[in-house]
Structures are given as C-alpha cells and as structure tokens.
Design brief:
158 residues; alpha/beta; Rossmann fold; eight-stranded mixed sheet; two-stranded antiparallel sheet; 5 helices; 10 strands; 29% strand; globular
Length: 158
C-alpha cells in the first residue's frame, strides 16, 4: 500500500512537470484549462495532482476534475469542455479509444499510463519499469492547440 501511494505521488509530480512544459495556443477565454481525470481505485496520481493549489500549463491555470465513471466524464466534457485528459493505470487499460480519438480530433492533450497508451495515440505516458518511473512523449503526435517542450527522460526511482 505504501508503494502504491508513493508511486501515485511520483506520478503526480511528473504530470505537474509535464503540464508546466506544455504551452498552449489561445483556446480558452476563461484563462483556465480543465483537466479531466478518469480514475479507478484509491491511489491515483490525479488525487495527488488536485492537492497542488496553482498549476499552470502556460499561459493557463489548470482546474482539476476527477471521475470514476466514463459516462460522467463524457457528460462533463459536453457541458464544460475538457482540454486535458488523464487516464490512471487501470483506466488506461480500459476501452478509452473513443475518448482519446475524440480528444485527438479536437487537438487536446491526453496523458495516460504504460507503453500501450502511446499505441492508442496518447500524447504523454507514465511508464513504470521495476522501481523506475519514466515520462514518454508520443513523437508522432502533433497538435495545433499545444506544443510540448522537449522533455528529456527524467526517471524517478522509488
């Protein structure tokens, strides 16, 4: 249990770091981006990301919304619009291709877990290998809405 909690904290740090290195074109009139997280279980990085008071993905502040039901996330997106999606370890393995595909069509940022998430056309993936956590960017994906700065491999040991 301690291992899972520590890993979730480390993933949260990497997500914040990735968001701060993603620069957006003008897409929001409200000066904020909505990050919508689809999570399952007690130890999700999304729950720790929400503890950060002020997170920027330049030039916008990021507001966090967490969902444990895929339909609730879709409904929120229809009503309020998500610009960033995060899928935790469990939900990254679910049938999320439709959400990711819809996000890609709109030029939005998707963050998930595992090598497989990158093959589903996700933008950024957190990959655990043994006691190391790495952040990988899908180089084949380009968006007119945002630009991910060159992220150098930053493995975290835990």
């Amino acid at each position: 249990m301690l291992y899972a909690e520590e890993q979730a904290h480390n993933k949260a740090r990497l997500i914040i770091w990735a968001l701060s290195n993603t620069h957006w074109q003008t897409i929001s009139a409200t000066n904020q981006l909505n990050m919508c997280s689809f999570v399952s279980g007690h130890y999700s990085a999304a729950q720790y990301v929400e503890q950060y008071k002020f997170v920027m993905s330049p030039p916008y502040f990021v507001k966090f919304h967490t969902f444990d039901n895929q339909q609730d996330l879709v409904n929120f997106d229809i009503e309020h619009s998500c610009q960033i999606y995060y899928f935790d370890q469990t939900t990254s393995a679910l049938n999320i291709e439709q959400i990711v595909s819809h996000a890609k069509q709109r030029g939005l940022l998707t963050i998930g877990n595992g090598e497989k998430f990158l093959t589903k056309q996700g933008d950024i993936s957190l990959i655990s290998k043994g006691q190391t956590l790495q952040l990988k960017v899908n180089d084949s994906e380009n968006s007119q809405q945002f630009k991910i700065k060159a992220l150098y491999s930053m493995p975290i040991k835990f």
